Amino acid sequence: MINLQGKKIVLTGASRGIGECLAYELAAQGAHLILVARNEAMLQALSEKLKKVAPACDYIPCDLSKPEQTDQLIDRLKNNYSQLDGVIHNAGIGLYGEFESTKEEDIRELFEINFFSILRLTQGVLPLLKLGADPTLLFVSSLIGWRAIPRVGTYCGSKAAINLFADALRTEMEKYSIRVVVGYPGRTKTQFSEKAKAVGWRPFPTEQGMSAEAVAKKLVRAYRKGKRDEFVCLSNRFLIWMNFFFPRLIDWGLEKYFKKRQVTSDQ
Question: Which of 50, 81, 178, 203 is within CB 3.0–4.6 Å of 27 for a Cys-Cys bond?
C-alpha cells in the first residue's frame, strides 16, 4: 500500500457524512488535503480542525452543480498546485420518489453533480495528476449503481454511469500510471437521505447501516492499495452475486419490500 504522507489529494463533498470522515482518515495518515464543498463556513471549520493532525489542509468552496464554478475550481487548482497526487470524487446528492412524479430539472441537477462534474473535474486536473506521485482517482459510487432499486432510479442511473466511466478510464490511464479505484457503499449512517430531494417517499432510516467512519476507513484502504473495486462489506458483495445469478428473485424481493412502503403526498 502506498504511503499518504504529504500526498496532495482533492476531496469533494468534504463537509459532512462520508466525505468528512474521509477527511479525518486521510489527515490522520498525513495527506495534504484540498477540501471541496458548497458550504464555505463548514469547510473552514473542518480545515482548522484537520490542520492539528495533517501537514497541510486547504479548502476551496465550490457548487459542483454549476459548471462555471467547476471550471473556476480547476483554474484554482492549476494556479495553486504544481501537481496533484489524487482526487476523491465523493460529492453527490440523492433524489427519491417514483419516476413519473420526478421533475426534469431535479434530474438534471442530480446528474450535473453526481456525474458531469466528475467528468469535467477529472479531465481538467489530468495534467496535474500525470505529474503526481502514485496518482490515484477514487470514485465514491454506490451499491445501487450495480443493482438499482425502485423509486431511486435516476440516482441509481447516475451512479451506474460513474461505474462504467471508471471502467473505461482505468484502461486509458494505465499509460500514465494513474490508478482508478471505485467504492460502492451501501446503507450508511449519514444525513444523506434527509438532505436529498424527495417526492412522497424517503428510503431507509439514517440510523441504520454502516457507520460513515467505517466506510471511510475501507475506502481509504482501497485508495492506498489501488484496489479496482471496494464493496465495503460482505453483504454488499453478496447482493451483487445474488443479483447476477438470481435476478428474478431479487426483483421479487424488492417488489415485496416496496409494496409495504407506500408512497405518500409528503414532500
Answer: 50
